[in-house]
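User: Last request for today: this protein with S-adenosyl-L-homocysteine, please.
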Amino acid sequence: MTPTVSIEELPARTDLDRDAILALLSLSDPEGIERLRLAAFDLTTRLIGDEVHYRGLVEISNICACDCCYCGIRKGNRDVERYTLSREQVVESALWSAEAGYGSCVLQAGERRDPSFVALIEECVREIKERSVSDALPEGIGITLSLGEQSPKTYERWRAAGAHRYLLRIETSNPELFTRIHPGAQRFETRMRALGDLRDAGFQVGTGVMIGLPGQTLADLADDVCFFRSRDIDMIGMGPYITAPNNAMGGRMMRRAALLSLALKMIAVTRLALRDVNIASTTALQALVPDGRERGILYGANVVMPNLTPREARKNYQLYEGKPCIEETRTECSGCLERRILSCGRRVGWNSWGDSRHYMARESERCTQHGA
Ligand code: SAH
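Assistant: Here's the final one, the structure of the complex with S-adenosyl-L-homocysteine:
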């Protein structure tokens, strides 16, 4: 299939339609892919600048109420040693990242809705916000949560405690595929509703999908990009599907080289279609090839998530096989990552939240409309 628009024209266009998106995802000649990459990289520089922002990742708990077939910490995987970090450990990790100049952190865990967990998160968020205020971060460190589907009330509590961004992947915009990979009580409609609840609670909303799921087509991926745009999403975190330890998914993982190429094309196309959103270069890319995250940046990503989980816990938070950096200390990770980012012609956006430009533009438009 040939693209309906020439790739050189793309950065100037705001109206990439589904056919154009699908054509770009279908590119297979190296020159075409390189033109796509350059267009996405240049558009990122133009709309967002050359800074890549860090979100220090704290994997709070691997206890999970869900049984997602693809996931290594699903409830049914008996081979996982379960843990929950203490409040002190979580706060210490987040404060370490504030002091290291990261500007933001992400608190992630398996999905739990029990009152003690909801309260633990609320307390951690409140304490991290209070204690991370400094000259460099006058409003404290920025906090993103990635804690699955929760009630509107819980989202409101966590927002009020001081978290201001939330990442909840839809995994796929194809409802049938969603149902196939989520046995049990999880529903596509509930996930959709949760995205709306997050926006109502005042979060910057992030979502994303896995790329290369068994049974997923290129048309599904084109629909995913259209979905992100139609829901006016602020941040995207997506990565390749990689087989999990004790795999419970039917079907096969894609071959690594093809999977990497597809995941990178998805980043570039999402940048061109959604323009000023934040896009993460996810750790799963690095599980495919050692320089996977740099490649994500070269295809238009502008966020990375260095792992800050205490080392003893890290090995028990393996969503997929080959999770990188399990043995590195957080200081080693930090130094290594900055060198990698500089090698892409980017620099680290130290000591700032690095919020989604897309969100900020929408907010300022809203204020103008209300005469504020
Ligand atoms: N409980 C939270 C965090 C889940 S883990 C939530 O539900 O949002 C974060 C993401 O890891 C998931 O959304 C999924 O997209 C990704 N993930 C899980 N297993 C994976 C696998 N085998 N390969 C690639 N990504 C995976």
